[in-house]
Structure formats: structure tokens, C-alpha cells
Amino acid sequence: MKILYVEDGDSLSHCETRTERSECELEVATGARDAIARIEGCRQDPFDLAVTGVSVPNDECVEVIRYVREHDLTLRVIVNTRDGDDARVLAACSAGADGYIIEHSGLVDGNFNSDWSPVNGAPAEEERAPVPAQWPNEQLLEAMIRSLPIRIVVLDRNGQISYESKKAAQTDCSYGPHSGSRLADSISGGTNYLTTCKKAAAAGDEFAARALEGIQSVLCGSIPRFGLEYMYDQSVQQGWCVMQVDRMPPDHGGVVISHTDISKLKEAETSLRSAMAELEQLKNQLQQENVYLQQEIKLEHFPGNIIGDSAGLRDVLRKVEQVSPTDATVLILGETGTGKELIARAIHSASRRKDRPLVKVDCATLPPALIESELFGHEKGAFTGAQARKIGRFELANGATLLLDEIGELPLDLQAKLLRVLQEGEFERLGSSTTIKLNVRVIVATNRDLKQDVYDGRFRADLWYRLNIFPITMPPLRSRRDDLRLLVKHFVAKFSQKAGKRFAAISPAAVKAIEEYHWPGNIRELASVIERAVIVSPGPVLTLADNLTAIPEHHITSERRRTLEEIERESILSRLEETGWKIDGAGGAAESLGINPSTLRSRMIKLGIRSPQRRSARNRLQSTS
Q1: Is 605 within 8 Å of 569 (Cβ atoms)?
Q2: CB under 8 Å to 293, separation ≥6 — which residues?
Q3: CA pair distance 113, 133, nearest whole angstrom
Q4: Do β-strands 435-437 and 358-362 pair in parallel, antiparallel, or remain unpaired?
């Protein structure tokens, strides 16, 4: 028999003395590393037995045992221990030791198995022969198994249960993959595990079928080990277990089945996946925000401070101060160029969301087919050309503020989806059924008369009521005559610095023209007029390049609210009346306007234009109801 004895340096002479008087082939190793090196170097002529000395530390004993077990070696490992050192015994047996020897004052207790006997003949009288260890008694073994977070079942070569840990027998949670069918209740000592699995598999339990196949493969020796994860679901608890099937030594011929509850690991895995998904979403959101902010940097905005001290502007600023700390939806009304976006930025800058960007969407500049994707995003393959997932502006503005400019241009079908976002705080991306929760403060702006649009059927009444929580009306520039000098001074300073010029004064004629002009384009038009004047004036006195003609007040009142859409509506109505409401064909309104008949019909629907016949039929229907 070839024996490896593992000891420290102080005990080597004693080991060598015993070697000379033994008929066994004995090698001595100093510590765990030397022992592992010797075991590895003797793969062709392996050791039959390894014995660790009393003075070898516990962690080195465990290191040797684990190496042997992890490499599936047939080498048996015995641990020498002093009387009463139960911790050493437990550590060694848990790691997979084949036995232990208790040493009393230099002597050893134990009885040789005939298969393990390393010597022939009687030992000398003055010393007792070292013998391989006893297995732990039944109580100690059971205590060790109960201390492990697993359930153990031992099968013989026929699949009969020869051992079952008490923890497995007493627990309410089944220890088999067929736990959901409750067939595991019939498994106990003496039961044939394979027969029970076959019954469960025949009843449609796919996990039991896979377990049966794996156990049979280990029993017949085709594979050394089999593992399976399964879910248990009982009245008291629900979770995950992993089933491990290991081959027993050849003289036994059976298998050991262990079941370890991995529910906490699965929960941790699920939490990790959720955290990773959230991290990925935040990363994508940050990337989108970065792109958006880079675009915003390129835009020119009004100055950071709002210029003016008129009564109308002071009223607006008072409302801004009132509504900014809240999350209320704000509706900003006003003509084109009055500074609605500047007021929206002022509200955002004074809100609790000021550390996040103000995300802006101009509903008037987006094609109707792309507005939904731009607002709510889309999944890959949602429509032709959607080659990747896109995060919409609502999702981008989560936790921030979203400005919907020109809200009156939003199509009716999307107005319903916007209403849901405002009321419920949730939406779905285009092409997705997953609902996304949001926390967005919405500010909307328009130059249209939304009340009239509701009356004409171009804007949803319920959305109007939802948006009209806190309206702010921007006064036109012609109502802010007191602010004209301040605004002109600001724009002259801004554009002269940009052009590299200096002006000492503004000509009296220019001042008079500016004060008398009605400014239909408001502040935006004033900025353009001053910039052109800076470009063409050589200095040092600023003169205007435009011929500003004053318009009588009654013309201002009648014309100031005419929008491009109203002009288009009047033009279409005029052509329809000229053609007797004939749309297509020769001499029809579409031919007269130079557009496709289907385009004309869609514009009529959007503008709320109905033929006289439809209006009269509708009136008759309402009168009868």
C-alpha cells in the first residue's frame, strides 16, 4: 500500500522511523502544498491513502481533502485529531474526509477495516499501530447534515431510498422537482425514488421527467454528476431549488441527491437584472439628454433675464412666481413672438426640477406621421425605418419638465394619448405593450384660440379642460409700450457686440417709428428689425433699415388674430363656394387650388370645413333627437 503522510517539520523523524519498520511504501509531505504537489506528481502510480498529522492546521487539512474531491481521485483521506477536537472533525467530514483518528496522549483509537489495513503482522509491544479512522457515530453525522443548508437523499443502485436526512423528512417544503404535484409526499425511507419520478413524469411533470433521466444516467455511470434547477410552489412558500445528483463510491453503487434552496440567490439575481435594466435605461436616457443638450446649446434664446417693467409683464411674472414651485400643468397663451418659451424656461428654472433640462417639442414643425414617435418613442421594427429602439421626449423628460409648443397643431388621435399621460402618468412606446410610468411636469404653449378650436371640433374639450389649470397670457408688444425702450437698448447692445460696432445713440426718426409701429411679430420682429439696423448703420448713430408704417388701431384689432390656418381656411371655403362644393374632377376645387383631391379632403377635416348638405343633415338629426 502506498501512503502519503502529511505533517509539519517537527514530526518528520518520527514518521521516518515508522517507515523503516513498516512494509508499506510511505512518503512524507510537509504541509498542504507539498502534499498536493506529490499527489499531482504520482498520477501514474497514485497513493492509496493520505493521512494528515495532528499538528497540521485545520485549513490545510481541508485544502488537501477538497483538492482530492474536486479532482475525483480514488485516494482516501484520513485526518488525525486530538481527543475533544470536534471542530476539526466537523471541518474534515464536511470537506469530504473518509474518516478520522482520535489520538490520546500519543496513542490512537480506531479499528482497521480489512480493506484499509496498511500493515501485516503484529505491531511492537511498546507502541500501538496507527489505524485509519472510525466513521462518525450516527448522532454526530446527523448533526453535521442538519447543520448544512441542504436536503439529502441516498439511493441504492436500484433507486431505493436507503437514507433520508431528517431535515428533508420533517420540512413542509418538498425536496423533489415534482413538488408542485405533491407526489413528493409519498417519498420516504424505503420508497423507490425512480418509481415516484416515473409516476410524476407520466402525469405531465416535465421537471420530474428531466430528474429521472439525470438520475438514471448517473446510476448507470454515463455521467458522473447531474444538476437541475426547479421551482417549488406550495401553500406556505414559493421559491427555487437546485437538485444535485452525485455518484457514490463503486462499492456502494448508488447516488446521493442533494436539494439546496436557492430562492435568495434567485431573488438577488432578479434584483440585479432589474437594477441592470434600470441602469441601461438611465444610460440611454443620459445619452439622449446629452444629444438634446448639445442641440440646445446651438440654439439662440432670449436673454436670461426677462426685459421689461410694464404692468402686463409684472402680472405675468407674479403668476410665474406662484406656479413655479408646484407641478401643475401650465398653459401659456399669446401671439407669435411674445416670449412664451422664455416664460416656460423661467417657470422651469424656478421649479424643483431645475437641475434637469427643459425638454422642448415644437408640435408645428413635426410631420403628423412622426409626432407620436417623437413624443412617446418606438420599439425596433414598430414601423418601416424603425431600425432601433428610440426614447421619446416624454421618457427623456422623466423627472424634468416638458414644453409642448404649438399644442394646437397636435392631431386629434394623439390628443387622446396626451390626455392619458397627463391624467394617469403612463404611456406605451409605439410598437410596445409595456406600460411606462412617468413623473413629468408639462408646460404647453400656443398662439391659437383653443376655445374656438374646441367649438370647431379641432381640439378635444376634455384635453382643453385638463390643460387650462393655470393659464398665463403673454401680452403683445403693442400693449407693452413702456418696455420698448428697454428692449431696444438690450438688442442694440447684443447685436452691436456681435457685429463689432459701437453706437452712441439712436436717431429720433428711428425712435419715433419704433414707438408708433404696432409690431404684429412682437419681440421676435423687434429683434430682427434692430439686428438689420445694426448691420446697415455705419455708426455712431443707429438708423433703421426698415420702413415701419403705422397701421390704424381698428386694423390692428381686426387683423391681429388672423393666423396662417385661418387664411388657408378662408381660401379653401372661397374655392369650394366658387365650384359649388365640387372637390375633384375638371373644374373642381382641388384643381383650382392645384392640390390633390385627397389632400384637400384631409385639410377640410383638419380645418373643420363641412359641406352645406352635411351641416343641414346634422342639424336635422340634432333636432329630431
Answers
A1: no
A2: 357
A3: 9
A4: unpaired
Same fold, 2-138 and 148-261: no
Show Cβ contacts of residue 448 under 8 Å, excluding neighbours closer than 6 positions.
Answer: 406, 408, 563, 565
- List Cβ neighbours of 135 (8 Å cut-off, separation of 6 or more): 99, 141
For residue 250, give the 3-state DSSP assignment. Answer: coil
**One-letter amino acid of 565:** E
Separation in Å, CA 507 to CA 310, 513, 545: 24, 10, 12
Residue 8 φ/ψ region, left for φ over 0, alpha for ψ in the -120 to 50 degree band, beta for the rest? beta
Query: Amino acid letter at 603?
Result: R
In angstroms, the Cα distances linking 452 to 408, 472, 608, 612 are 11, 18, 11, 20
Please name the CATH architecture into which domain 477-559 falls.
Orthogonal Bundle (1.10)
Rounded CA-CA distance 216/222 in Å is: 9
CATH number for the region 2-138 comes to 3.40.50.2300
What is the 3 state secondary structure string of 93-127? HHHCCCEEEEEECCEEECCCCCCCCCCCCCCCCCC
556 pLDDT higher than 50: no
Q: Give dist(CA 248, CA 225) in Å, integer.
A: 10
User: Looking at residue 530, what is its pLDDT?
Assistant: 93
Cell numbers for 159, please give them: 433507486
Residue 438 to residue 25: CA distance in whole angstroms: 77
Cis link prior to 552 (omega < 30° from 0)?
no
28: cell is 512524507
Fold classification of 148-261 (topology level)? Beta-Lactamase (3.30.450)
Q: Any idea which residue has 426547479 for its cell?
A: 230
Amino acid identity at 438: L
The band of 532, judged by pLDDT with boundaries at 50, 70 and 90, is very high
Distance CA 377, CA 277 (A): 18
Q: Where are the domains of the chain?
A: 2-138, 148-261, 300-473, 477-559, 564-624
All cell numbers assigned to 355:
437641475
C-alpha span between 179 and 191 (Å, rounded): 16
Grouping H, G, I as helix, E, B as strand and the rest as coil, residue 448 is coil
- Taking the C-alpha atoms of residue 78 and residue 248, their distance in angstroms, rounded to an integer, is 18
Determine how β-strand 150-155 pairs with β-strand 161-164: antiparallel
Model confidence pLDDT, tens digit, residues 428-486: 888 888 888 889 999 999 999 898 888 888 899 999 999 999 999 999 999 998 899 99
Q: Which residues contact 279 (CB under 8 A, 6 or more apart)?
A: none
pLDDT of amino acid 253: 75
Mean pLDDT rounded to a whole number for the chain: 78
CA–CA separation, 465 vs 414, rounded Å? 16
Q: Quick one: pLDDT band at residue 93, thresholds 50, 70, 90?
A: confident
Q: pTM (2 decimals)?
A: 0.47
300-473 CATH choice from 3.40.50.1820, 3.40.50.280, 3.40.50.720, 3.40.50.300: 3.40.50.300
CA 320/CA 313 separation, integer angstroms: 11
- Residue given cell 359641406 in the structure block: 611
How far apart, in whole angstroms, are the C-alpha atoms of residue 196 and residue 21?
56
